[in-house]
Amino acid sequence: MDIKGKVFIVTGGASGLGEGTARALASRGAHVVIADMQVEKGEAVAKEINGSFVKCDVTSEADGQAVVAKAVSAGKLMGLVNCAGIAPAEKTVGKNGAHSLTLFSKVVQVNLIGSFNMIRLAAEAMTKNDPESTGERGVMISTASVAAYDGQIGQAAYAASKGGIVGMTLPIARDLARNGIRNMTIAPGIFGTPMLFGMPKEVQDALAAGVPFPSRLGTPEDYAKLACHIFENDMLNGEVIRLDGAIRLAPK
């Protein structure tokens, strides 16, 4: 796929991995629709990259439809990057008792169901595209995590939600193959995002030191480079790529 001149949706595009991806796509000539709950930040980023912003709760069908409608009105929608997500930590049984069922449900709702909601709506719109020379009509990229495989203490909800994204990668790719739509997942390791920067500096340093090579935090630019390559390489389909510097998470 030639990214230039195409339209891409990036959920969670107002910050972190999503913002990095939105900027990278725009630098390659794409029109990016940022879908995020952070209105002020999202509008500011959209303005800087000459894109569009739509306030979006990814768990809402109506919000997702509004984002897709905005993207289709801007041109040929060819890509979706799911970066919206939350990462609270709570033990199955902690000092205050059993894990909150409400919190577990919310994490799965936002991370897993929210990702699927956006995939199904964007895919429906992409099926109406005239195919590219490769036969493609669109590409989906979702964000899992190495926690899907190496979930740490306190990550039952988060790991479950990301494991669900891993698990649906291949079936969705198979579902959409007849339509010329690819589906991929990136599983980042320890990345420097607003979620991580909320931790104490010594914790951040310890996490970075635990990455075999390169021994540093991943950056939104690292993620964005892989996302752009996935869009451009039409043999990448139905797979999860770990982007983690060879880290395997310890229990804590």
Write the layout of secondary structure elements.
Blueprint: E1 7-11, H1 16-27, E2 31-36, H2 39-48, E3 52-55, H3 61-74, E4 77-82, E5 93-94, E6 97-98, H4 101-126, E7 138-143, H5 147-150, H6 156-176, E8 181-188, H7 194-197, H8 201-209, H9 220-232, E9 240-243
Helix pairs in contact: 1-9, 3-4, 4-6
Can you tell me about this structure?
α2 links the parallel β2 and β3. The mean pLDDT is 96. α1 packs across α9, α3 runs parallel beside α4 and α4 packs parallel to α6. The protein is built from 9 helices and 9 strands. It has 252 residues and is α/β, with parallel strands linked by helices. The strands form 2 sheets. A 7-stranded parallel beta sheet has the order 3-2-1-4-7-8-9, sandwiched between helices. The protein has a two-stranded antiparallel sheet with strand order 5-6.
